[in-house]
Amino acid sequence: MERGKMAEAESLETAAEHERILREIESTDTACIGPTLRSVYDGEEHGRFMEKLETRIRNHDREIEKMCNFHYQGFVDSITELLKVRGEAQKLKNQVTDTNRKLQHEGKELVIAMEELKQCRLQQRNISATVDKLMLCLPVLEMYSKLRDQMKTKRHYPALKTLEHLEHTYLPQVSHYRFCKVMVDNIPKLREEIKDVSMSDLKDFLESIRKHSDKIGETAMKQAQQQRNLDNIVLQQPRIGSKRKSKKDTYIIFDTEIESTSPKSEQDSGILDVEDEEDDEEVPGAQDLVDFSPVYRCLHIYSVLGARETFENYYRKQRRKQARLVLQPPSNMVGLLSSLFSHFYFSLVSFDACVFFVVEDHILHTTQGLVNRAYIDELWEMALSKTIAALRTHSSYCSDPNLVLDLKNLIVLFADTLQVYGFPVNQLFDMLLEIRDQYSETLLKKWAGIFRNILDSDNYSPIPVTSEEVYKKVVGQFPFQDIELEKQSFPKKFPFSEFVPKVYNQIKEFIYACLKFSEDLHLSSTEVDDMIRKSTNLLLTRTLSNSLQNVIKRKNIGLTELVQIIINTTHLEKSCKYLEEFITNITNVLPETVHTTKLYGTTTFKDARHAAEEEIYTNLNQKIDQFLQLADYDWMTGDLGNKASDYLVDLIAFLRSTFAVFTHLPGKVAQTACMSACKHLATSLMQLLLEAEVRQLTLGALQQFNLDVRECEQFARSGPVPGFQEDTLQLAFIDLRQLLDLFIQWDWSTYLADYGQPNCKYLRVNPVTALTLLEKMKDTSRKNNMFAQFRKNERDKQKLIDTVAKQLRGLISSHHS
């Protein structure tokens, strides 16, 4: 049973599947029926399916037959109608054939006209095609013509752009034409021609920059100078108490005329024609004077041509050569003195180097990669090293401070100009500090000559004034105040001579000269003040001191001149505080500031005054020696004189007149000079009395010598110089006085008895001196009294002399033991 049921179920499923396949066959296109039939043959019941298919076909045939039977009468009717239409159609055909024949006959002329029209249309189409081709070629020809025009007018960069468009845009569209091939073959030649011409323009540009560098450099420096002047006006501070006039323009600009052959040649060379402008008008920028278009064109052309690196290398190489030429002095300067060499060398180099680096800086900022900062820094370092080396070598020989100052101004202007463009200039300012020391030395040498002339031309006498105008003029030149002198009526005299105000003003001029060099060095007020004070100290302690010492040590200088020098240096010493104030006013640095250098003028003038004082003492002693050389004593005379020797009277008169001149000297100086003169006179007289050449002397000679000493003592008592206490000055002659009194009074008993006691009468008499003089009198007595020895008195006197001499020897020997 179960098997029967399963067979029945499978039979139903197969029948349903066959039914589905038949419906799919009926509803599916014939082209897609293959998969359906394949599924039938893949199964096992295809025989049963064929039976089903045959049954379905028979069913469809019966339906078709039924349908045909239903429409058969209509079909017959249609055939009948169709037969009728065939006859009418034949008639219509005949009519159409007849009409066609007539139409062909009538349209023969139209066909001919149409053939002609066809030819015309063909020609028209050919013409149109030709025009189209010509229109396609015409832009190429126009571009080529434009290219040639641009080449002729030297518009090389537009020409290169035109060539690029021609090669890449226009020629590919007409590349099959022969003339295009000619153009293509000429393109490399044109590129080379553009490169050569643009390179030639670049060479002209580089040459013109070198040729016209003075004009461009002058403009760049004027620009920097204007900016610096504006900065100085903004930063300028009023200086309290300063009487200095406005600063002079110390900058030297060498105006050089540039002659040009023609406006075209000047423009082509890269230098624009700029008319001279008035001083109050704005100076054009240095870049405004230069036409950089040749550089830009050449750079763009080589960049487009793919040879930018070649151009950069060539440009840098040429500019390096130019930099070396800029720093090389012209051949016509080789014979110049070194003092002039540095000045003119840098005046030329400053313009050329300034132009060189201004141009390079502009190229750096207006092009991309033609030059770079490392390249410019390398050239700048080379330029700095060569310039500084040349200046150091030759500027050291420069002996003119004006040339050194001009050189400094050029260096400052050059440094300020390039500093505006961002170049480091610290080395230049460091070198200026070195030149500053050299400048100070040249100033010292110059002022040594000035001081020497002032001191040599001075009359060393007080300045006479006869009017109030002259008095105020002198007081205006030198800070001097004296109430008593102001109260005196004209004519009157200043205590100092003319070299005092002259030296004082020259010291101020020296300070001004030092200040000129320090200007625009970007130094602080303290640094400027320190520089001025140090240089002024060198002027005072070395230059002025040496000049004064040389004058003081001159052989032919007199006592009057020495006295006046002492007076002058005293007043100059007092003026040092005014010099301190003067420096403070121009530098605005108070002297109380820490580390402020003090002026050594006081020491300088004190040393000079002391040297003059010593020279006075020496000079007085020399004069005394000259008078003493006139002494002519008769040491063997027996006559007693009644007056002093003539030479001594003249000497005393000289001393009186000399000390009268000392009234304006400080008291101690006059007193010291007087005391020194008296001591020297006393010592010289003692030496004259005891000298070995005087072997014998008489009591009469001692009496005459005593009169001369009394004359000296009278001079000392008269007070030739005020300020001495009582008999202080007489003490200079005390040794002589006691010695002479001892011999003239023959008071040997007192001398021998009191010798060695602190209050003895002849305390200043030395036994050796007394013995020497006694020996000379002893020999005289023996020689002149050969026969008097038979007299009792003479014999007693000789015995007394021998006894005193023996006792003196005993004193001397006991003293030594």
UniProtKB/TrEMBL annotation:
Gene3D superfamilies per record: Dsl1p vesicle tethering complex, Tip20p subunit, domain D, Exocyst complex subunit Sec15 C-terminal domain, N-terminal subdomain
Gene Ontology CC annotations of this record: exocyst; plasma membrane
Gene name as annotated: EXOC6B
Function: Component of the exocyst complex involved in the docking of exocytic vesicles with fusion sites on the plasma membrane.
UniProt protein name: Exocyst complex component
Family to which this protein belongs: Belongs to the SEC15 family.
Organism taxonomic ancestry: Eukaryota, Metazoa, Chordata, Craniata, Vertebrata
InterPro entries xref list: EXOC6/Sec15 (IPR007225), EXOC6/Sec15_C (IPR046361), EXOC6/Sec15_C_dom1 (IPR042045), EXOC6_Sec15_N (IPR048359), EXOC6PINT-1/Sec15/Tip20_C_dom2 (IPR042044)
Gene Ontology terms: biological process: Golgi to plasma membrane transport; intracellular protein transport; vesicle tethering involved in exocytosis
Superkingdom in the source lineage: Eukaryota
